[in-house]
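Appendix B. Chain record.
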Amino acid sequence: MKKLHKMALASLVLLAGVATHAQAQTATKATTKAAKASTVKVTDAEVRQMIESSFTSKGPATVEGVVNQDATQKACSQYPDRTHVPAPVAKKVEAAELKQVKYPSDSNFIGDWKEGEKIAQNGRGMQFSDQVGAPNGANCYACHQLTKAEISFGNIGPSLYNYGKLRGNSQDVIRYTWGKIWDSNAYSACSNMPRFGHKGILTEQQIRDVMALLLDPASPVNQ
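Structure tokens predicted for this chain:
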């Protein structure tokens, strides 16, 4: 009798476990179903309307600058992780952006590295508290190491320390460097780096000065 009692008890425990497992599966399915039902698809037009009704243009920071996307921005918005941009899309973006890079008409690519260092250190610009037309900084140190002396820098982008020392100053290197600063997407589709020239963030003279910071042998970048 004791043996039968133990077997019956074991069966009840097993059945209870099965019931609990089944209940858990049912609850999980119900939760998943509810989550799917509660998911609402939001259209681009609805997002645009929300932004336009929530923000106000002030100074150089405008609503239009946020909601109006060019072809490259629209393409890259489809791929939040730029390392997973399909090769055909990347090739198309880079080709289109390379065509609109504007090189200096007087072929003067190099400015003053001391001014370039100031621009690299400056993180201000294009904020609602700035004056329209005021010069912007490039904030290069937010993403790159440039000099040995600077102890605070980001690593989103590659180190640029010894940039010119390692690459030289051939015409190909100079044109590539200018193009990269002018429009980073011309060489790396959907890059995190701002399109400084294309978007009018930096002036032509400012780009010359940043070029000098990277390429001038006397620059601290190349020491």
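Further analysis of this model is presented in Appendix C.
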